């Protein structure tokens, strides 16, 4: 094998001997993909089409031993190393130019013990695959709203979705994790073993090791839930969102309602004359008995005069995929996000204003309702600190052509600055784009000093840096 040019951790180019690469490949159960490999370009692609990086080597690992071997190789040669689960992260940190990528495409097994209500999950799995494995038993884990999202990145950033008000964040169901450290050692993190590390990976991102197995406690959900959409004209959104604020304040923890402001997609239940016109969509899910859900949703469904109301009994697994058509791969994406302690009138007016001048038909602003079980965990109990947040807003700016990059990004940044006066200053780690390294304080809050100390203990020279990075605390 010929030698290849690669990139070091500090960004310098260096030559790596082909014999060393061949020796690594011989030790792996998985494969090494370089540019001439027929699967290389598919393997390097990510959900966000704005990210177009070319790693020198992609290691498709088949187990923790493979991951450890790759980490040791990258450390020995001082190479930049990224980690790819499902490749769905908005910032594109799952890949790098010129370095190595640990790719989990071949590590997607899920073992479910329905009696013990435990699932052991490999890091290449998607949320949809989690539902396929757990929902036949009427069990689930609180996860996100897009089924092609990867479980690894979602969990390490905190994880939230339709059942978080009832059961907490994804990390609140995490029981333990197997990791490969920056030294290439295989260890376990839990409340009993390496508890400080377990604290750090619950919201601290990929800064402290590479997780090769997650163990989750499963929650009773479905297999059928009361869920669906209520669609209104955007012209009525100001009053409706004020009504929604009251509905949200009175909602039981079993009920979650999110608001989405966008141009109406061609949904089959919408009259054709509404396709492409600006609307407010309430998306609701109730986890519990149908009759109780019907009663809990009365306030929401009584708001205004909707264009359509399609709330009813649905398969939970199918409901979890309801937004997939609006978040499919291949688009260019740029997100901006804020945490909100409350939904003030001025914030509502600003949301409606920007929703009336979206840059593309694919762009949407969503308001996520949190609270409930997520607030009962102390802010310092896990690395994820934002337990006091009742709402989160995120703009999904999406478009097709690179020619629209500047226009769409500028619009999103204007939205971000216009809504900043109503925000807490916090931000959800998984919603941060690549240009927000300066928001680490906002992402980790008062937990950042402890995270930096733990980074110094577990990764003192910042080997794991292709992420929303936490720099190690300086040595004493």
Give a brief rundown of this model.
With 476 residues, the chain is an alpha+beta fold. 26% of the residues lie in helices and 24% in strands.
What is the level 1 CATH name of the largest domain? Alpha Beta
Main sheet, how many strands, which sense, barrel?
8 strands, antiparallel
Task: Report the mean per-residue pLDDT as an integer.
Answer: 96
How many structural domains can be distinguished in the coordinates? Answer: 3
The radius of gyration computed from the alpha-carbon positions, rounded to a whole number of angstroms, is 22 Å
Number of β-strand runs? 21
Task: Based on Cα principal axes, name the global outline.
Answer: globular
**What helical percentage do the residues reach?**
25-40%
Low-confidence stretches: none
The helix tally amounts to: 15
CATH architecture of the largest domain: 3-Layer(aba) Sandwich
N-to-C CA distance: 45 Å
Task: Show the helix and strand layout.
Elements (H helix, E strand, L loop, with lengths): L3 E4 L5 E4 L1 H10 L3 E3 L6 H5 L12 E4 L3 H13 L4 E4 L15 E4 L6 E4 L4 E4 L5 H8 L4 E2 L10 H7 L6 H4 L6 E7 L5 E5 L4 H7 L8 E8 L1 E2 L3 E10 L3 H14 L4 E9 L14 E9 L3 H7 L1 H4 L6 E2 L2 E4 H4 L12 E9 L4 H11 L8 E6 L21 E9 L5 H15 L20 H5 L3 H11 L18
Parallel strand pairs: 4-6, 5-6
Antiparallel strand pairs: 1-2, 3-4, 7-8, 8-12, 9-13, 10-11, 10-12, 14-16, 14-17, 14-18, 15-16, 15-20, 19-21, 20-21
Helix pairs in contact: 8-12
